[in-house]
Structure formats: C-alpha cells, structure tokens
Write a structure and sequence with these properties.
Order of helices and strands: HHEEEHEEEEEEHH
Strand order of the largest sheet: 1-4-5-6-7-8-9
Shape: globular
Number of helices: 5
Structural class: alpha+beta
Strand content: 25-35%
Radius of gyration: 20 Å
Amino acid sequence: MAGGLPPILCQKTEEAHVHILDDPSGLSGRARAFLARVADRAEDIGHRPTEYMRVRDANGHVIPAPFELVIRREGFAQRFGGLRYPVRTIALMPDGPYLDRRWWRFDLDDHARQDRRGWYFSWYGEQVSSPVRYLQHTDGRFGVSDSDRFIPVYPTMLHLIESHALLDACSDWEPHRGFPEGIDKAELIAELPPVPEASGP
C-alpha cells in the first residue's frame, strides 16, 4: 500500500511502540517524505519512569501512576521519544518573503493529570515561548492545556505530524501579496462562506 494507511486509521499503529522513524506506518507519503528529509532522533535524554511517578487524580488526590498511564506514557517514549524536526513557515514581510523554522521536540516532561476520559501527560512540543502545555491523552488524542484542562486539537499524534508536513510543504509557495487593484475587498470577503472550525469565540 503506497503511502500507508490514511491518518484516520492510525490509532492502533501508535500502540505498536516501534519508533516512528523506524516504522512510519499510518503516515501519508507526504509525511513520510517530510520525516525522511528533516527529522532526527536525539540520544535518549531519559525521562522519569512512569511506574515511579505519583500523579494527581480528578479529585486532587496524589496516587501512584495507574497502569493505563504507565502503558501509554512509556509507549509514547518508545514511539516518539527523541524525535526532532523543524517545520518551515513563510510570511510576507515588507522587504519580501521570510522563511522561518520552528523546531519540535518529542520528549516527555513530568506533568500528568486525570480527566473524565482518562489521563493525559505533557511533552515538550514546539520550542517557543508558549502559554500552553503540549499534551498526549491516553485515548490517543493530541491536545494542549489552559491551566489544567485538556483541550483536544488532533485525534492522534500522527495527525499532528501530517499537519506539520503539509505546513512545511506550503512554505515553498509564493505568499499572497494582497488584492489586485480595483477589487472591492469588503465585497469579496462578504461572499466567502464562514468556516466553522475557525469561527469560534
């Protein structure tokens, strides 16, 4: 099967615990090519073994890490640990297009919490100053936090990598330089249908 499984089917693949660079099953051809071109695996910096962690449950009690959290967090370390890559983005600046690279780091840190659907744990993520934590839920979802609430972003970690591959591919495009002369911008914008995913509060 050229290109692998569609990303929507990658939940079970992530449970295999073979590093993503050794087995990119479940990723599209674009994402595989992206990882082959830019990704690297850093030496294992080590992480706090989950079985020795004490974590806070949904009631605020500190307990030994439950089996579900141990399996998923250690599985993340095996599947993605040490993965590093830059994602290119392009912006149109006054003096022309500007190509930026944002590095992503897939290493665990020590934060874990429970919510009504299971557990989630944090990892380093994008190497920028950020107001949110990058999280992985034990049900497979990738998300972020605002304080201690899990906010889902993608159904799986592989969807995140797919989005990075697409964003990086788009960095080769010429940025839009604005509306041509004589076009009524307000009228043109008014005709565009709203995008529900981008129209929240």
